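Entry for the shared binder. Reason: the reviewer on the internal report wants the predicted structure included alongside the sequence.
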Amino acid sequence: MNYVNKHLHTAKRVMQDIFGSYLTKDELNSICDASNDFYMNEIEAYERGIATVIGYVHPSDYLMLVEQKKEKP
């Protein structure tokens, strides 16, 4: 049990290191401690800084338009 607990703690720390700047502490705890799934759409991922580009497909001509994330000054 100690072995499993240690590795679960390590996995949680890695998740916090990777996603800590994109997710709130409550969201991270919900994912890590309660094993809840967490979903976000492309707009939310873009707004949080996870995605840097969003592609939009125009329905009439099927051309993809790409919006580049602008760096904050």
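Summary line for the report: Strands lie at 53-57, 64-68.
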